[in-house]
Amino acid sequence: QVLLVESGGGLVQPGGSLTLSCAASGFSFRNYDMSWYRQAPGKARELVAYISSAGRRTNYADSVRGRFTISRDNAKNTVYLQMNSLKPEETAMYYCNTVWRGNNAWGQGTQVTVSS
Questions:
Q1: 66 to each of 77, 82, 84, how far by Cα in Å?
Q2: Which tens digits make up the pLDDT trace of 39-87?
Q3: 49 close to 11: Cβ distance less than 8 angstroms
Q4: I need a surface site. Which of 3, 44, 69, 97 has the fewest CB within 10 A?
């Protein structure tokens, strides 16, 4: 059974930084691409960042490119999202994702609040 557990969210001031973590279990993590999504209240869930299984390829939403960095440690079955220069409009629940056997698998999410 796929299990994704996010952590690292919290309250941060505008311009601040946070690093999110997602611990994965129940599948061969090193063989799967991983992504981070976010969902703000009243809005659709959106893709923030993607990383390939070996970590060689990454991609970002235009709104975060240059400020966010996705990375992974296949020895620790963990994917990370380093977020810098955070903006109030990036307040959202952040979710870890993979596609396992053709189905989306999600964690429970971690809340990021950007406010002064």
A1: 25, 11, 9
A2: 999 999 999 999 999 999 999 999 999 999 999 999 999 999 999 999 9
A3: no
A4: 44
